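User: Sequence in, structure out. Go.
Assistant: Echoing your sequence, followed by the structure tokens.
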Amino acid sequence: MARDTYLFTSESVSEGHPDKVCDRISDAVLDAYLTQDPQSRVACETLATTNRVVLAGEVRGPAGVLDNIDGIVRDCIKDIGYEQDGFHWETADVACHLHEQSADIAVGVDAAGNKDEGAGDQGIMFGYATDETEALMPAPIQYSHAMLRRLAEVRKNGTEPALGPDAKSQLTVRYENGAPVGVTSIVLSTQHLDESLSSAAVRAMCEPYIREVLPDGWVSASTEWHVNPTGKFVIGGPDGDAGLTGRKIIVDTYGGAAPHGGGAFSGKDPTKVDRSAADAARYLAMNVVAAGLAKRCVIQLSYAIGVSKPLSIYADTYGTGQVPEAAIEKAVAECMNLTPRGIREHLGMNKPIYQRTAAYGHFGRSPDADGGFGWEKTDLAEALKAAV
């Protein structure tokens, strides 16, 4: 039986976190390829450490992109805000080891004759939605992201110049009768450029912005605050800790509130189902909830490399469904072509829309006019209702 009263915690990390710096660079490389050729194939991994960035992976697309890799990397670092002795957009050493995509992978993915495009790899992908927030996201991860996005805004617009780019948040939310009702603890570790600032001073600076993004009444006198609990956080970003692409997959998705297939997103073009099918599963779960078919829903999809159709479709509504899960599984297969090509065409994914997804979550975001976050639409809800 599901628990009605409990505490649940999720964390987020800022765009200046070392791993997120790498996600941003990998997705910026992907966007550069898709800008010149929407059919480009990209699998770009990034490593960042003290004043050094290393790129590796496979690509297939316009050769001219590689000529501008140095500029792409520096633009990312500059926009994030790193101008420190240990990590600076002007002085960082950039090494690029991207090479041509494996012919063995290409033959499995590419369409040929009667063969449709296949999945870029095997794997399982999960999508999740819940009606506990307007964004149909779990409250702990949604508000953990919101805290850091707000602090990044006031850092970058000059309102709070003492804040640095690197930050982490953690939110423990209290649930009663299955609904989020308050925050029992708030954890914030944020880099500060003024070495004289105490933890209390950093809290005084950041607390108004945190309260601003949390629902009214969620912060009470009993809420525990832990702001820069180690006392000082001056050395941050890749100078303080090395970063790698794809190490924040739970931050990128549902904060631990739903299953995860294990595949990372950033730096991968949408023929890779690690990315596109995870987005499609979220899109389907959102539309199931938006259609009123369930209050919570998880969708699992599975694929084999080189095979176009999903091997399985699974739905779980955690006992909140208005129709049997089997009916939902049948409906989603009828309402959306879940081949890699079908997903990309339905969600408009062959566009340079990925750099913006690299921080503050791939889900729970508003769709952009140019097609960004197109998987966050609920335009399939009526079709799903009709199908069941």
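User: And one key feature?
Assistant: DSSP finds ten helices and 13 strands in the chain.
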